[in-house]
Structures are given as structure tokens and as C-alpha cells.
Amino acid sequence: LSSLFKRSGFLAFSKSFPNKDVDNIVLTACNWLIKNQVCNSTGLPVWGLPYRRKIWIDELSSEPNTGFNVPTVHGIHAMLDLAEHNEKMHDIASKSAFVAASAWHSQCSSLIGDERTYWYSTLENHNFHVTNAISLMAGSIQRAAVSFPNLNNKLIDGADQAILYILHSKRTDLVIPTWDYFGSRMPPNKINRNNDLLHEAFVCDGLLTYKKYGGNLGSRIDPKELFEMLAKFNRDKIIYDFPITEKNKNRRKNPARAIGLAHALFVVCEIYKLSPSRDAYELAQSFFREISDNILEQGRIRYRKLDTDISSYIRTRAHLIYAVSNYVDLVETETALK
Hints:
Layout: H1 9-16, H2 22-35, E1 48-49, E2 66-67, H3 69-85, H4 90-107, E3 109-112, E4 115-118, H5 131-147, H6 153-169, H7 197-212, H8 223-231, E5 234-235, E6 238-239, H9 249-252, H10 258-274, H11 278-295, E7 296-297, E8 300-301, H12 314-337
Antiparallel strand pairs: 1-2, 3-4, 5-6, 7-8
Helix pairs in contact: 1-12, 3-4, 3-5, 4-5, 5-6, 5-7, 7-8, 7-10, 8-10, 10-11, 10-12
């Protein structure tokens, strides 16, 4: 539902279905999100997953509709996008985003010296340091904070502290810097690894959003470096799911998954908007070409090239909607300028 107004997704929907009452569809989705903005496990005003989930060292599965980091990030951005594009819904949507951001910062984070980590869910047993979740939440909290400049001191401090953790977690010992999936604290039954394309794009997304919305450490975030972190997955004209530094040979040779391609495309378009370059434009073209040639096939969505039909995966569909629409907007803008 949030893909209807997740960043450029709302605009794409309006263009594609000019005869639909898009405003009413968006209002219905917004009301549903607000009505369901509650974690069944803690009562916090955040968003979750409608099914049970058992991860890492859990002995029992979480309750349905337990709040999770990434769905909450998407909810915050969706509400803030709606607030920017719909004057009638501005107050209720922006308040919803700010309440969610405030709740996650105050109840679902850990302060470690002058750094902060945001948990993977609202449950304290999920407080391991997942770099993509920390970065995404920091970016969304920064955006929510600047929407309420008179109320956001703690949120801005929290975003700064989380971004500082992410910057210090970067694997600078590699030729092209990257992030591992886990930071300094991880489940004892897991082995750490470099991020795949999706989770590297998530990290880059959080950093870029934080910089875009005036984060105090924004000068330490270089869009060109973020571009290089995504470009490393494009080797010999094939876009892979893992970087060349991945130790598992089978993982290393797998083509990228649809959801990873989609979010990487979205982020590269955002990088281009912030810091235009021919390299970024061509990388966006490569990601889009892979999606159009090998993921979208006769009305179906493939998991990856020559793989399973996952057309029923709503999350992947949502990522594809706002990624491809963002790319189309970028191409149309560049064509008009020329």
C-alpha cells in the first residue's frame, strides 16, 4: 500500500491510471496505515509484518504485526511523501511519521558511547547491529525531525549518533569499501558477510537520505563513494547479487535478485539527482536494463534472471514500482533538459 505514495510511486500511479480516483485510493491507504500503526507486541505506534517471524536466536516466533525496522522506515517515508504532495493530509500524515520516528528512537535503540544503533524490531532480543536497518532508520528519523524543527532535538542527535556508527562500521580494509550485514554485535549462531546488493543499497539509501535532509555529518558522506559501492556489483556487464569479495562461490556467481536491483536502481537515481555524473546515469541504465530484460517478463516478475515467478510478492512489486518510476522521471527530466 505504501508504494502508492512512496516517494515517486504516487506520481507514477497517477500518470499510469489517469482515469482512476488516485486521491481516494491514497486516502484509503493512508487511513489503513494509520489504523494499523501499532505493534502488537509492545503497543508502539510503528508498522510491522502481518505474520509470525522467527529469526536468529529466537526460541519463539514473534507475534503477527510486531513492529519491524524496515516496514516502519517505509511507513515514515510514505507519510512524509503524502504530506509533501497532499495539503489536506499534511498534518495527519506528518504527525504519523513523527510519532513513529520518535517511538523508534526512544524505545528501540541502544546508545553506545557517542554512537547509537536502531534495533531490527521493537523486541529487545532483536537489538543486534544490522547495518542496513540502522542506516535506513537514521535517514528516516532525520527526515521526520526536520519536518518538526521545534520538536526534534533528540531525533536529530539520534540520527547523528546512528550515522556515526555506520561510518565507523565501514569496511575500509577492502579495495572498494563496503559494509558487512552485521556491525560489532551479531547473533552467536550467524557468520558475518559483506552485504548483498539489496542491503548495500539500503545502507546507501539511509546515508543519502540523511545527507539530503541536512544531517550534521552530511559532509562526511560522499555520493561518489556510495555510487562506487553499488557499481561494484556490476562486473563484466553482469549485475551480481554479491560483491567479488563474497567468500561463498555459489553466492558470488548468482545474478542479482529483483528486489535488490529495484532498490539499487532507486538509490542510483537519487545519487544522480544529488550529484549528477555520466557514470551514475549509465549505472542506472544498466540496472533498469537488467530489470526490463530479465525480471519483468510477459506480465510476470522473476526472482532473478531465469528463476522463479514471484509475481505475488507484494514487497518486490512495490520496490519495482517506485524504482522504475524514479528512473522514468529521471530519464524524462534529462531528455527535456537536452
